[in-house]
């Protein structure tokens, strides 16, 4: 996708670029047949292990810890991500070559848009929850009071709800960037015609950038892209690096003073 007056992403006149793209296409042809099955295994394993985490962390003697509450929320986010991705893989990857089923119907494309936004929301929430957990650990170590507010589950639940709400609000523009648009007519393959009325025709759809996202040189699209990259990725990674380094330094100083 190119916006008005944008430079091309790849210089196709460059021989090295063409070789690189050809290598990627060759890898895609080799890996694509097994991609769906690998993802099914990963999703199933992830849902099962996160369910075990939730069952363990929500036991009465475990849920009194603020850190365990945050870990429970992280596991719920990961289960939601993997559950949505499982449905996506089954329909859009494993059944993509099925000629008897309309893969890209309007409702399925709406689901795909919701899946895309939901996966971004849950993945970003998980990342910020991990940052919050590192912050809670840091504040707990700095607090001289036993059973301070930072150690209480009530504080953790408030932090989790605040993160959920903020990330959800920030993900709304991503939902508004894309529109589901009609592409053409779909006809069932001849070997499947017995399952459809005579001369059956249905519409199939795809994604396009919305007119508002394309306006003014794709200003809204680019703003959302930069906002998502900075707030959803860069900032939490920097904060996590800072809190983790600070936590290790505090533990090192504590161990050194004890010895």
Automatic annotation (TrEMBL):
The record's annotation in Pfam families points to: 7TM_GPCR_Srw (PF10324)
Membrane-spanning ranges: 34-57, 69-88, 108-136, 156-178, 223-243
Primary site of residence: membrane
Q: Which residues fall in a coiled-coil region? A: none
Protein name in UniProt: G-protein coupled receptors family 1 profile domain-containing protein
The source organism is: Wuchereria bancrofti
Q: Which UniProt keywords apply?
A: Membrane, Transmembrane, Transmembrane helix
* Any one cellular-component term (Gene Ontology): plasma membrane
Its lineage reads: Eukaryota, Metazoa, Ecdysozoa, Nematoda, Chromadorea
G-protein coupled receptors family 1 profile domain: residues covered: 49-259
Q: Where in the cell is it found?
A: Membrane
Which SUPFAM superfamilies does the entry link to? Family A G protein-coupled receptor-like
The GO terms describing molecular function are: G protein-coupled peptide receptor activity
């Amino acid at each position: 996708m190119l916006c008005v007056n944008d430079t091309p992403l790849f210089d196709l006149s460059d021989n090295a670029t063409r070789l690189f793209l050809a290598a990627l296409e060759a890898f895609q042809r080799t890996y694509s047949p097994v991609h769906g099955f690998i993802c099914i295994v990963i999703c199933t394993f992830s849902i099962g292990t996160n369910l075990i985490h939730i069952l363990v962390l929500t036991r009465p003697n475990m849920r009194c810890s603020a850190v365990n509450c945050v870990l429970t929320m992280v596991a719920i986010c990961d289960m939601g991500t993997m559950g949505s991705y499982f449905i996506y893989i089954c329909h859009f990857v494993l059944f993509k070559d099925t000629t008897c089923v309309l893969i890209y119907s309007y409702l399925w494309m709406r689901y795909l848009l919701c899946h895309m936004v939901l996966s971004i929301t849950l993945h970003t929430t998980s990342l910020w929850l991990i940052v919050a957990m590192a912050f809670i650990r840091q504040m707990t170590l700095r607090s001289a009071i036993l059973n301070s507010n930072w150690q209480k589950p009530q504080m953790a639940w408030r932090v989790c709800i605040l993160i959920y709400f903020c990330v959800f609000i920030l993900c709304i523009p991503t939902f508004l960037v894309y529109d589901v648009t009609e592409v053409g007519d779909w006809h069932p393959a001849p070997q499947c015609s017995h399952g459809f009325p005579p001369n059956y025709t249905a519409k199939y759809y795809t994604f396009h950038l919305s007119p508002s996202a394309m306006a003014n040189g794709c200003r809204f699209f680019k703003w959302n892209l930069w906002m998502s990259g900075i707030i959803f990725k860069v900032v939490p990674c920097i904060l996590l690096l800072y809190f983790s380094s600070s936590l290790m330094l505090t533990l090192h100083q504590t161990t050194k003073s004890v010895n």
